Amino acid sequence: ALRCFDFTGVKQKTFQIEFAIRMLMVLDRIKEVEHSDFISFLYQRQDEGRYVYFPQERIAAHRKVRRLTKGRIVFERSDAGEWRFSKETVDGLNALERDLEILPSAFGEGDIPLTLSMLIRSRMPEALRRGSVFDVELWQWLGLLVVIFAGVVLDFIVRLLLRLVWGRIDHKRGVDRDRSLIKSAVRPFGLLAAGLLWYVSLRLLGLPATALLVLQIAVHVILILSGMMAAFRVVDLLSAMMIERAVHTETKIDDLLIPLVRKTLKTFIGAFGLIYIAESFDIQIIPLLTGLGIGGLAFAFAAKDTIENFFGSVAVILDKPFDIGDWVVIGDIEGTVEVMGLRSTRVRTFYNSLVTLPNASLVRATVDNYGRRRYRRYKTALSLTYDTPPEKVEAFCEGIREIIRLHPYTRKDYFHVWLNNFGAHSLDVLVYMFFDCPDWGTELRERHRLMLDIVRLASRIGVHFAFPTQTIELKRVGDAHPLDTPSRDTEARARRAGRQTAHEITEQQPWREYKPGPVLFGGGSDEHGTEGEGGE
C-alpha cells in the first residue's frame, strides 16, 4: 500500500503508514472504496499522466461532500508507469481529513486501526481540531510548544546529572577542575537528549507532510551536530585518560600515537556527520563526487599533499625516528618536538619559535635525534698554574675522579681525568666524562653541581686555576730549588689525599643520600627542603 503514495520528503515508514491509514479514512468518508472503480478509472486514462479522483461532478457521492472542502485527491503516473497518490494529495491530507471528519465512516467506528497520533487527536476538543494556522491544527501547535519545552527541561536535567557525576568522580580522584570546562563538556549531551525527545515526539502530533519535512530536517541537523560534538567530547575524554596513563610508561610512542589517533577519529566523525547532514537535505554525496569530472580531478590533485602527509605520519610512527619531547635537528631546524598531527609536525626551537614541518618531508629528511642519547658528553680543560707541585696535581686529578664516581648522574664505567697538556700559561688537566640524564635541564643542573665541587676541591687541595697573564719575575741566581725526588708511595699518597678531600667536600651534599629527580620548573621547595631547580 505504501507504494501507492508519492512520499517525497516523508522517509520514515511510521509516518508513511500513518498517512496511508488517514487517506483510507478520508476515502471511506467520501464513498465506500471499491477497487473496481480505481481499475476502470485508471484503465481509461492510460495515456494521461494525471487523474483527479476527487471531486468529480458525475459521481453523486462527490457532489454531496464537495461543498465541505477545497481539497483534492489526485493520482499521478510515475516514470515507472505506476499510478500513485500525488505529493499534492499527501500535503493536503490534513485539510481533507479535518474538513470531512464530520461525515460518517462507511466501515463504522473502530474498523480502521488508529495510530497513536490519531488517538491523541481524537481526545482533543473540537475547537482545537477544527482551527488551524498554516494547515497545522491548533492542538498540534500546542503539542509543539509542549515538546519543545520538554526538550529544554530534559536538556537541563541531563547536563545537571552529568555535572554532578563528573564532579563526584573528580572529587574521588582528587582533581580540581574548572567548572566552566565541565559545563562546556556536557553541553552536547544535553542537546543530544533533547534532540532524541523531539525526534520521537514528532510522530505523536500527526503533522502535515510539509511541516513534518521541515521539522524532521531541523531535528536531524540538531541530532547530528549534537552527536558530533558529544562524540568529540568522548574522544577528548578517552584521550585525556590515555595520556594520564602514558605519562607513567617508559616508552614515548603512546605520547605520539594518542594525539594522532584523536585527530583521526575527530576527522572521521566530522566526515560522517557532514554526510548525514547532506542526506537530511536529500543531497547524494556519492553521485555528486562521481559527477565532478574535471573538478574531481582537481580535487584529487589538491588532496595529493594531504595524502602524502598522512602516509608520512604513518611512516614516522612505524619508524619512530623521534618521540614527543625529543631534541632533534631536522635539516636546519633544531628544537624540541611538541606535536605530531595528521599533516604536520611542530618543533619548538630554542628561540621559542614554532616551526611546522610537513610529515611528507620527514620521510626524506635526515633526523639527528639528540633525545635518543643515553649519555651526554662533557669535555673541558682545567688550567692550573705552573707552580703547582706534581703531588697536588695528582691529588687534584684523583679528587675529580672520585667526585665523578660519587655524583648520582655521572657515568661510572668510562671517564678520563689526566694532566694532558703544557699550555702557554698553564698545566692543562683534561676532564672527559658523561652524564646519564633524562633531559637537558637535568644535565645543566648536574654539570653545575660537578663544577662547584671541582672548585671546592681545588680550594681544599691548594691548587690555583691559571688565566692568561704576563708576569715579570726577578730572581737572583741560585734562588731556584729543584723538585724533590718522588718516593715509591708519593703518587699513591697524593691519590689518597685527593680521594679523601673529595669525600670531605661532598659528604654533606644532599645527593649523597638520595638521587635528585629531573629538573622541575615552578620554584618552591621540594620534599627534601631544597629549592625548586626551575627557579634557580
Describe the structure.
With 536 residues, the chain is of the alpha+beta class. The protein folds into 4 domains: 2-113, no CATH class; 140-291; 301-372, SH3 type barrels (Roll); 376-471 and 486-512, Alpha-Beta Plaits (2-Layer Sandwich). Helix content is 52%, strand content 13%. It contains 18 helices and 13 strands. The protein has helices at residues 13-30, 35-44, 60-65, 87-91, 93-100, 116-122, 126-130, 138-173, 179-201, 209-247, 253-280, 285-290, 294-302, 304-319, 359-364, 390-406, 440-461, 490-506; strands at 50-54, 73-77, 83-85, 132-133, 136-137, 327-330, 333-340, 344-349, 354-358, 367-369, 376-384, 416-422, 427-435. The strands form 4 sheets. Strands 9-8-7-6-10 form a 5-stranded antiparallel sheet. The chain has a 3-stranded antiparallel sheet with strand order 1-2-3.
